[in-house]
Amino acid sequence: MFSQFKTFKKQKDDNNEIKGDVSTTANVANNPDPGSGVDNNYYEMHAMLEIPISGLPIELEGMYTSQDANRSVKSSYFRIHYDVSKVKEELQQFISSYNQKFAETKSKAIGMEQVYGKMIGTLESQKTRLENELKAESSLAESKELATIRVNDIVDTSSLKQQTMNTVDSNNNASHLGENAAKKKAAALKKKEEIEKKYQELETLNRKIEKYKTLLEQNKNNNYFDSAIAYSKIHTQDYSSLSSYKQLVKKSSDILPDGAAKKFVTGLTNMDAGMFSKYSSKYTMSGQMMKGLDLGYDLGFCEVGGTIGKTEYIGRDGTPDKYTCYSGRAIFNFLETQKVGFVYYGYTIDKTMFAGDGFFKNINIATPIFFRPVHILSVNYNGTASKFVTIEAESAISIKKMAPVEGQTKLLDKTGGNMAWHISSDGNIPNTSVSLTGSYDKTGKQFENNTLPLSRAGTEQYKLGGKTDLFHSFLSIGIEYNYLLQSSYSGTASNTKWGFDIKTHSRRYPAVSVSYKPYATFRSYSDTLNIPQRPLLGSVWTSKATYQLKEHGRVWRFNLLYNKCSTVLDTTSYGNTLMQLMCMYTEKQLSFATTMGYTSQTGGNATTAIVTTPDRMSFLSLTESYVISKQYSITGSQEIGHARFGICKYGLSAGIMCNFKKAPVTARMNFRYSNYKLNEIENWKQLYTGNMEVSYRFKAKKKGNNFK
């Protein structure tokens, strides 16, 4: 079995498939959607290709949209990605299949031993019976020579046959001395034939017994040397804790093709080129979208990696803020559950950001400090304190050459103002369903990383939370505490928030959940210089109830939702509220849904804000879909909205999808008509939209080692 698995794995690696899909979308419309400044007349092309190289799946993906022709920030992208999670999953499935197959083979071997053992026992019984009959025929009881031979000791039956034949021949030779000599001679010859037949049967039984014993012995030896030894090495391994593909291959090398564990590419932990998001740590690269290159490799004693590229954000003036970023990292895995990482991250501001002075109109950017690079050093830890508690921690410092003062260059702030700390922990109380979480974050006023999605300079935050299940997991309750402290150059302010969530879990009764979640974001100091603003505070209330009924292949689903979001920025408060009821009916080919609800918006500046719907509106929508056959399906929808001044919108849509029977092609076509007005004095605006998409899927065999 082991040899077969190695051969199968090698053949699979040598004959991996090249697969992918290509799609084209075209959209036409007479007007843009409400509140949208994007032209709705465009086309897009998307392609994805997966190529196995040395057994590793490499993905190439790209998208182009014609809308980028009028954009300063482009949406089109291309990237090359090594899907390490996929190849690890495939290898883990292979190992799991091997373990399962070994268990099946072992079970079959036990069954084979039982069946063959029973057959050998039956043959041994037949052999004993024949030997006893031959002994009786040779008058063994009167023979001193054969009387000492035990049945179990007889391997070669020729001596027994000879003794029996001698007895018959003596009877045959002596028969002429008595009367009826002819009858006795005939009887003796008949007896001799019977003995010859029994002897042949005995020889046949011996051959069968030896054959089955040999087969059983060979099966035991093969199972041990070919599979059991390899199985004993891999079945106790915890493959879920292995971080890299190289470690996984090394641990399972006994069942992989020869030399698989020695390939250089098995050490790759990640590879991305083009546009991708990257997370290294909380205070360095924290999920930013980048255009560049990222590589990671497992050296055995540590994992190393490097990143270089550009990232950008949309500024308040609508133009992109661009930065050139570069990073290096090393992660040491001292124990399977303890990791320590070191990250260097640096960035410089793209000079095109200073082409205009709209953003920096109140700041003197003539000083060269704005063009100087920022360097960030980070140390992070991830591990477990016990089987119940996990810990994450990070400490980072930002370094930037400041303007010279009295002949000195200031690099570091000895007060720790240019540092940031984070520590978090979560765990379970033993023998209970209670789980606890906690975290502490502090960012100095002078800590600088303008490439982060959210800057928290000059903030301190405490978070505590707990969750438990009650009534045999029917009810779960969670609570959280959030304390925020912000320090600026002019003062300090704090904010305390409590949140909670309650959920029920049941198949028999409706599932109900209620939650209250506070949140806060902060502006950077340079933002405050230009537009004096304070922290953005808010909260979200969410309540939901769901229920499902199943009967004879038909399913009814009911969903009730309430959501309220409120935000406070300086002295301005605004928010929105949504109440919605949805009912969906589904059977084998038909699906039908009805949604009704109410939405409202409060606060804000009605003059300058982008308005997409009336401030208060009730709505009703119907959605239908029907599967005509395996190749065709259709969809449709209708909607109507009512505001304080009357009907504010109505519309309908229709769509069809076709899966071609003799080609891997899917085509979709949609049409939408909408008529709306946002307030009482506006005229009705009509919107016609048509959309068509064609996608093609393909597969091809990679012969031999063309890509190795």
Account of the 3D structure:
- Keywords: Coiled coil.
- Residues 178-222 form a coiled coil.
- With 708 residues, the protein is α+β, with helices and mostly antiparallel strands.
- Among the domains are: 100-234; 267-436, no CATH class.
- 22% of the residues lie in helices and 46% in strands.
- The chain has helices spanning 2-14, 84-137, 144-147, 158-174, 181-234, 245-251, 525-530; strands at residues 17-29, 42-53, 56-65, 77-82, 268-279, 286-298, 303-314, 320-335, 338-349, 374-384, 389-400, 419-428, 435-443, 459-470, 475-487, 492-504, 511-521, 536-551, 554-569, 572-586, 590-603, 616-627, 632-643, 646-659, 665-676, 685-701.
- It has a 26-stranded antiparallel β-barrel.
- Strand 24 and strand 25 (665-676) form a beta hairpin.
- Helix 2 packs parallel to helix 4 (158-174), helix 2 runs antiparallel to helix 5 and helix 4 runs antiparallel to helix 5 (181-234).
- The two termini are 27 Å apart.
- Residues 1-11, 140-156, 224-242, 253-262, 361-368, 523-533 and 605-609 have low confidence and may be disordered.
Q: How far apart are the first and last residues' alpha carbons, in Å?
A: 27 Å
Task: Report the count of strand segments.
Answer: 26
Over all CA atoms, what is the radius of gyration?
Answer: 40 Å
Beta percentage is: over 45%
Oligomer category: single chain
Shape call: extended
Main beta sheet? 26 strands, antiparallel, barrel
The portion of residues assigned to helices is 10-25%
Observed structural traits:
708 residues; disordered N terminus; extended
